[in-house]
Amino acid sequence: MFRRPRIRGKPGPHTAETEESKDVKPVRYAYGLTTALLLGGATATLVTGYPAGAQVAQNEASEISRVVPRAGAPAGFADLTAQLQPAVVNISTRQKVQVQGGGGANPFAGTPFEGLFGGQGGGGGGGTPQTREAQSLGSGFIVSSDGYVVTNNHVITAEGKGQVESITITMPDGAEYPAKLIGKDAASDLAVLKISAPKPLPFVKFGDSRNARVGDWVIAIGNPFGLGGTVTAGIISAVYRNTGAGGAYDRYLQTDAAINRGNSGGPMFDMKGQVIGINNAIFSPTGGSVGIGFAIPAETAAPIVQKLMSGQAIERGYLGVRIQPINEDLADSLGIEHNKGEFIQSVEPGGAAAKAGIQGGDVVVKVANKEVTRDQTLSYIVANTAPGTTIPIEVIRNGRRMTLNATVAKRPAEDQLAQAFDPNADQDDDSFSDSPSKQEQQGVAEKALGLSVIPLTPTIARQLGAAEGTRGVVIVAVDPNSDAGQKGFQRGFIILQANGRPVATQADLTAAVNAAKAENRSAILLRVQPRGQPAMFVPVRLR
Asked: Is the pTM of this model over 0.70?
């Protein structure tokens, strides 16, 4: 399978089958790290009443300020915690999930916990699928005295073919209430629940995460490992951290406060008692906290939660492009500045970008007069633009800047996008009969790229599933020590272009390599089509 340039790991639904590991969807990142979704929710400021020092709904918010340190390091968090903790709840679901039957199968195969406990995943056995009871645990917080609760979408959504049968909210005093799902949004990983209680409930309010600064104190309250109301403290380590997972909401507050499995959906409070983040994910080699946790900023969560509470549809802007950040290799292959803009891998036919004239290979540097940066990505700007709005988009194409006008479309549902950009394909059989031996492929391109290629014939194209009329050269051998080999190039990949020039023969590829060397470029930009996948641009270092 070709390794895509971007790191995958978007928050998603979760299930669980044991009490020890109730809420993590591991997402594999670069450097061998695991991002664990933490089953949790949003953020707020406590303003209602409850025993144990919590305010009642009628109390004035000014009562909180009496116990909040005004400057410097706080002497302690006990008073603030006593007021906030009554509004933080535990959330559990009962689910029916399908698992693969058969002897020797991994009992966690097909669930978010596959591979976490020493198993190899996949299940081996291939027996008849079986339906089992499962449970997941997470955190949440109350945002109104009449019982609206915010959490993460993955806390209350079953994985795959699973089905959530019931949701239960447990208060800090042990009281349990059945919860009704009011609304959920997979793209932002947020959900709103509703419970009914015989008396007004304690609640918190969202603060303004735009005022958060690196070094500010924060506390996190949640349900790690099912232990119930647990409080941890730390500082904000980074604001608007881009983890590389991609998507419109890859934009987090980073903290060193201990965040673990079960903290998902729990609030991150500032020293004013306001929720400025919703604990959502961690970087970890083992799944436990190593001091790198991520929270959805309140400025992102609050408007979405408000719409979900009022029953409004969540609409986002959409261009219909596949993108990747500008890394060093890509910048060198294009001859442009490093870390400026984002690269267009491909354009959806008939989409908003295609209608505006945006093409694969363009570098987008500005959208709606806003610079495209790691902290303010193309996806984020467009997603927060109302569908139907016409915006200017500045691109670099073949070294020249130009401005195009695009009318933003409505973003499709997440499941539709997954089908469009992650099609299932048979990667097992990439052989074809008329491949010459490697010795016949020696030449400039092979030495510079570590690739042996042959022309794409109609017969080979059919065997590889390429569209009729596709022109290019087919990779028949890859040097695993080359940059191309390290980036996942495989036998059967089709090279369509090199530095913007069509490639139909070995001579075409050799000419492109020589031209790049003549311009003193250390990398070349190839447009390749992995078997069963869309074509994409990949920069490859020359040697």
From this structure: no
Residue 200's CB: how many other CB atoms inside 10 A?
A: 16
Is 279 in contact with 40 (CB distance < 8 Å)? Answer: yes
* Residue 488: strand, helix, or coil: coil
DSSP 25-52: -EEE-GGG-EEEE-B--------S-BTT
Question: pLDDT, tens digit, for every residue of 490-503?
Answer: 999 999 999 998 99
- Among candidate residues 14, 144, 185, 189, the one labeled active-site is 189
Terminal Cα distance for the chain, rounded: 24
How many residues make up the chain in this entry? 543
Tens digits of per-residue pLDDT, 128-155?
566 677 777 899 999 999 999 999 999 9
Cα-Cα-Cα-Cα dihedral sign, residues 537, 538, 542, 543: negative
Count how many Cα atoms sit within 13 Å of the Cα of residue 298 in the half-sphere of its side chain: 22
SS3 309: helix
CB atoms within 10 A of CB 420: 13
Q: Which domains does the chain have, with CATH numbers?
A: 8-67+76-314 (2.40.10.120), 317-421 (2.30.42.10), 438-541 (2.30.42.10)
338 among known catalytic residues: no
| Region of residue 539 (phi > 0: left; psi between -120 and 50: alpha; otherwise: beta) | beta
Which has the closest alpha carbon to 52: 106, 5, 88? 88
Active site residue 154: yes
- The count of other CB atoms within 10 Å of the CB of residue 429 is 9
Catalytic residue among 264, 284, 289, 333: 264
Active site residue 479: no
Residues 117, 18: contact at Cβ < 8 Å?
Answer: no
